[in-house]
Amino acid sequence: MDQQWLQHHREQLTLLTTLHNLAAPPESATVVCRFGYDMDNPYSIRLSLVNSPGDHVTWVVGRDLLLAGTEELSGEGDVKIWPSRQQTETPSLYLRLDRPHRTATFAGELHPIRQWLETTYTVVPAGSENLQMDWDTLAADLLPPA
């Protein structure tokens, strides 16, 4: 699948791309992944892995973590991201996702993901994320009613 950029509206950016599950048998190794960025939640990226129509798993990862992972091994705990070490024509980005009793490692093309990610930093520059947050709504969601 070719990468597809979608822009739902000014506040959301989406990249559809193909990832390969490195532990899956070849006939089921290809997974469609939707990378989503929403200005209302400017610190994170949503990764929706589509197993079949209507069946997907979503992971939320830090935008800065994903960016760091395009350069070097990044992450602790449930999510680890790193670029391929070989200097090839098509460098890869690896994502290792852990949850209790299950681990999956995916590989996808680095450049389209990196380019899309850089667009999120054009829309919301690093260090200005807090200006996008609706702190009153967040506080109301976290605190019990008075």
Please give a structural write-up.
- The chain has 146 residues and is α+β, with helices and mostly antiparallel strands.
- It is 23% helix and 43% strand.
- It has helices at residues 63-69, 110-123, 129-132, 135-142, and strands at 4-9, 12-21, 30-38, 44-52, 55-62, 79-83, 92-99, 102-109.
- Strands 1, 2, 3, 4, 5, 6, 7 and 8 form an eight-stranded antiparallel sheet that branches.
- A hairpin with an 8-residue loop joins strand 6 (79-83) and strand 7 (92-99).
- The radius of gyration is 16 Å and the shape is globular.
- The protein starts with a strand and ends with a helix.
Key attributes of the depicted protein:
single chain, 146 residues, alpha+beta, 8-stranded antiparallel β-sheet, 8 strands, 23% helix
In a few lines, what is going on in this structure?
The protein has 146 residues and is an alpha+beta fold. Helix content is 23%, strand content 43%.
H and E string: EEEEEHEEEHHH
Give the helix tally.
Answer: 4
Average residue pLDDT: 84
> Ends: how far apart?
51 Å
What composes the largest sheet?
8 strands, antiparallel
Please give the share of residues in helix.
10-25%
Low-confidence stretches: 5-9
- How big is the Rg? 16 Å
How much of the sequence lies in strands comes to 35-45%
Class from secondary-structure proportions:
alpha+beta
- Tell me how many strands there are: 8
Silhouette: globular
